[in-house]
Amino acid sequence: MTTEPDRNVGLELLRTTEAAALAAARWVGRGDKEAGDQAAVDAMRVLLATVHMSGVIVIGEGEKDHAPMLYIGEAVGDGKGPETDVAVDPVEGTNLLAKGLPNSIAIVGLAPRGAMATFGPSFYMDKIAVGPEAAGKIDLDAPVTQNLEAVAAAKNGRVEELTVVVLDRPRNEDKIEAARQRGARVRLISDGDVAPSLMTALPGTGIDMVVGIGGTPEGILTACAMHGLGGEIQGRLAPQSDKEKEHIEAEGIDLNRKLSHRELVIGEDIFFAATGITQGDFLRGVEYTSDGVVTHSLVTRSRSGTWRVIESHHRWEKLVPISAVPYRAP
Ligand code: VTB
Known about the structure:
Blueprint: H1 9-25, H2 33-48, E1 54-59, E2 75-76, E3 83-92, H3 94-99, E4 105-112, E5 124-130, H4 144-154, E6 163-167, H5 173-181, E7 185-189, H6 194-200, E8 209-215, H7 216-229, E9 232-237, H8 242-250, E10 259-260, H9 261-264, E11 271-276, E12 287-288, E13 292-301, E14 306-315, H10 316-322
Parallel strand pairs: 1-3, 6-7, 6-8
Antiparallel strand pairs: 1-2, 3-4, 4-11, 5-8, 5-9, 9-10, 11-13, 12-13, 13-14
The site of 7-O-phosphono-alpha-L-galacto-hept-2-ulopyranose has 11 residues, from strand 8.
């Protein structure tokens, strides 16, 4: 069945991540992650208000009382279009931003209302992410060695040629050790597991798999992207304290369920946009030119499976006078 081309709200979402990245870029390497995050939140919120949707934040800056903006439950969009769930991470990798390190990105995910899993009090999730060749061939419950072998077979390569990314934390030590023992190349990262997860599904990045316990919201945002990129992420909540575990159980959430991206975010009308803030391995960071700024973004749409890499040139001379966001100090 064919249909007439319809709107791609992902291209509107792109403007929200570009705005967040432009605002956050002023804080790169300045050692103040809160200020950088706040600038990104403020900018993203202004642009989200222009998106044609009746959106509700389901993954945001936190509960209402602790987060004045983009809090969970906040209505976003112009209030007229389709009812949607919206997941935001205006700065994924605030430490990376503050330290001027690679791969901090601004992110938005979008799905029809009710389509996104909401694990309110859950902070941590055990995850595995791979690209399209290995999608359907991995298993979160299998040993790392078995998953490495599955990815190698899917790519007609050898485990020794694969690069697996892991968040450098004691909680991930067993996986790091197992991957090394099997001869894979392990790239340890200090923060930000979304960017490398996207890279598993993008050509020429040299990243084959991401494993280990990272953030739950980051897992759901990655799931939005994998719908459009054709890769796969599987996750299971992995509370790191008794308090976190109790809170999840009190909400009646099943801790033992293994979920793929199709269960983390349900359906086909799923969109994702990300813009580089600091220079990244795939997404370039915000670059200043003599008359403005260049941004580099990824936009995905699950129904068509189209993903786009978009380079945008923002020109101060025209942008600053009309923009509600103070991108450039007067
Ligand atoms: C994870 C990871 C994120 O922070 O949430 C991590 O998914 C937090 O882990 O990408 P710790 O509590 O061990 O620091 C990030 O790295 C960045 O937000």
